[in-house]
Amino acid sequence: MTTTPFGTGCHLHLIDGSAFIFRAYHALPPLTRKSDGLPIGAVAGFCNMLHRYVEGNTGPDAPTHVAVIFDKGSHTFRNDLYDQYKANREAMPEDLRPQIPLTRTATEAFNIACKEQEGFEADDIIATLACQARDAGGRVTIISSDKDLMQLVGGGVEMLDAMKNKRIDSDGVFEKFGVGPDRVVDVQALAGDSVDNVPGAPGIGIKTAALLINEYGSLENLLDRAEEIKQPKRRQTLIENRAQIELSKQLVQLDNNMELGFTLDDLGVRDPNADQLLSFLAEMEFRTLSKRVADQLGKEAPAIVDAPAQSADAAEAPTVADIPFDSGSYECVRDAEALKKWVTQIRERGWVAVDTETTGFDEMVVDLVGISLCVEPGRACYIPLTHKSGGSDDLFGSDDLADGQMPLQDALDLLKPVLEDDSILKIGQNMKYDAKIFARRGIDVAPIDDTMLMSYAMHAGQHGHGMDTLSERYLNHTPIPIKPLLGTGKSAITFDRVPIDDAVAYAAEDADITLRLWQLFKPQLHQAGVTTVYETLERPLVPVLARMEREGIKVDRDTLSRMSNAFAQKMAGLEAEIHELAGQSFNVGSPKQLGEILFDKLGMEGGKKGKTGAYATGADILEDLATEHALPGLVLDWRQLSKLKSTYTDALQDHINAETGRVHTSYVQTGANTGRLASTDPNLQNIPIRSEEGRRIREAFVPEEGNVLLALDYSQIELRILAHVAGIDTLKQAFAEGQDIHALTASEMFNVPLEEMTPDIRRQAKAINFGVIYGISGFGLARNLRIPRAEAQGFIDRYFERFPGIRRYMDETVAFAKEHGHVQTLFGRKIHTPEISAKGPRAGFAKRAAINAPIQGTAADVIRRAMIRMPAAIAHLPARMLLQVHDELLFEVPEAAVEDTIETARRVMETAADPAVHLDVKLVVDAGRGQNWAEAH
DNA sequence: GACATCACG
DNA sequence: GACGTACGTGATGTCC
Questions:
Q1: Which residue minimizes Cα–C1' distance to B3?
Q2: In chain A, how many domains are there?
Q3: Domain termination site, one of A800, A832, A859
Q4: Can you give the residue range of the structural domain that contains A362?
Q5: How many Å apart are A845 CA and C4 C1'?
Q6: Domain contains A587
Q7: Is pLDDT of A540 > 80?
Q8: Residue A701, strand partner residues
């Protein structure tokens, strides 16, 4: 490597690469490479900026040395100082991520030194180099407008805002901060920075900070003499927040003494290598820039083959695949040599669609059978790993491995570097499943994209998001069904018994379909206006959920077993009594038989219902009958016990994992159209709590020895969101003052002073409050409160009279749904309402759902944001996040760390809407702890 | 596999 | 003027 000694008279240029990238990304529309759709806008802008920069470097002021400096990794020493550092940063846009490595390549193509270092921000490298250059007697120009770099100005160091072509010297810094460069960090430490989440001193901005620093000379002197400050508020703030201010200084202070793996001498300006640069520009298919650069270098512009332009209506009719599916064309990878070739292809591409085949559906139990990969439409492979010999018709097929498979561990060892490589995107359909399979084998798959989640972000409310649905709908292709391969019922086999040839066709096709869906959906996210939803609420949640599911929660089998026995005994007693009263034996669990006994044999009042012609025997009906007869009440008791036993005390025992001794639920991220999660196998979001008897089931959910369970739940989050979106000042004020919201509603509606409030009036108001969230109707409220319909309607009328904003919100929401076919949450999540203009009763359903969705959905978005931020926030604590129940998060934590965990988790939850949305109503989180889930609540 | 029922927020 | 109706889920047992 050639070196150019740096010394007196030399001039170093340091380019802030990340700033270039983001400027380029936001300045240009989302361009894609014509030939394959690779997002390329930021790279194009970046190259244009570099080119313009190189062009301008003439004359006596030209640099002798230059480097472009990048950030690397997301965790720096500042995160160790302060876990919330940059915690508010939104995730990198999905279409930008694959472009990051290309900007490095671009820099090298221009033959400019390209530097980054793990664990440090670009700013620290810039600081270190600037100091070295200054000490060596040279000049430095930092090409950036980032105010965090202004502390470096002076003594031959200046900044240059490349966009405005404006130099910033000491005077410029003074203009910005009111102090010289040497005191910039003091001012920043006081003023804080909301963008990087540097706390600073509350209530003190740059102006006040400069005033104080100028008066006291330095931050240290100011803090030591804080008692002397005349303004009481200011004095108190500085004294109380001393530690926080000192921490802030550490955060903003750049490290100018880093260990670097290179020296200034390595950064000498070099002429571009014409061939290298032109071939890179051609590869990116930058026609204009290629031509311009070629002209300047006196070379011929490289040919860029014109790919057929996408038809204008491609987005509207995306059902035609250019390349036909051919299940016979897929490769079966049987040895390391073949797999290595795929690894090379993946590295060249920078992305790969991945799918795993397993012996079942429980990711915590199943074995890995094979892996499929796809790098471009039609080009996919399947790697069989643990298929057994003996065909599917051989019921007693041997447990020997089939021939022609590479050892499982060999395949994983080859794939691990790819699956964990930051610069290679792993694409999946329901990637959480595959990520968990890999995680159990020590592979942490990242970064990922997920076609199921893309579909959910774009199409929630329109259709399902399973692969078969998406393939038929958007690729006009019916995937090979799995049924014929596995069979059904008792004779069904697991995938490891499927002949490898059949497996290749089926499994590789899944990866092929996934890749095609990804290529189709990727540009559509932007067009549908849901890139932010996908990037900030969907994609980053995947690893969080995967981890929670893998943690699981300890459930005490003995407790459940004892309860099951007790329930069985009670049920037997009740059953005997019921048969006695009925005068005959029958199946109490059969609504049909029960209906006939009650209404035909015993002649109670009540009609048939439903298309089936069977009597309705729901709890509400039995409750009414119970006032006249003994039998219905006994059936209700029996049903409660039956439910608790079968669904909870029995079934939960079967879900205790033999290996971990814990219960591992699966969250379905696309389970609810509103943005809520769903929990399955088992559902841990509907563990009983409302009845005393059922609540005791929560006693079986326990922490490990020495730990406690911690439950944090949002207080009235949906009503708070309603108050915000509908702009109800009275409610907002009530929440601000911490009042009892249902009592206040009651007081407003029924003109009862708060001090004279009765539980019954409050209960009615509470029902109305909830009704409003659900898209209230007189009928529904009447049924809920068991009052005449006219009376219920009177309540509603009064409510709307008192809170006219609610009616306005409802009308506007329905009108919006009719106009756009969807409603949305405060965070931009879209929920489609295809039936909103239907005729008949369906319109009523759609209307109420449309009214409810933005409220329920915004609450769901808020807790998602909290969950996404939680792992980093509690990383320094021994706490584990285990469960989510819509407005509640459950943690397991050693006793010693309980207080810290509550404080940290509560802060994350209460500030989860920031900075994307500013709610007029503060969010409040209640916390509870205990030796089981019942106590913690 | 549809339906009724009931557990949760 | 009548229609029907609270919002969002998942698991279980019965019955065809």
A1: A612
A2: 3
A3: A859
A4: 327-528
A5: 10
A6: no
A7: yes
A8: A555
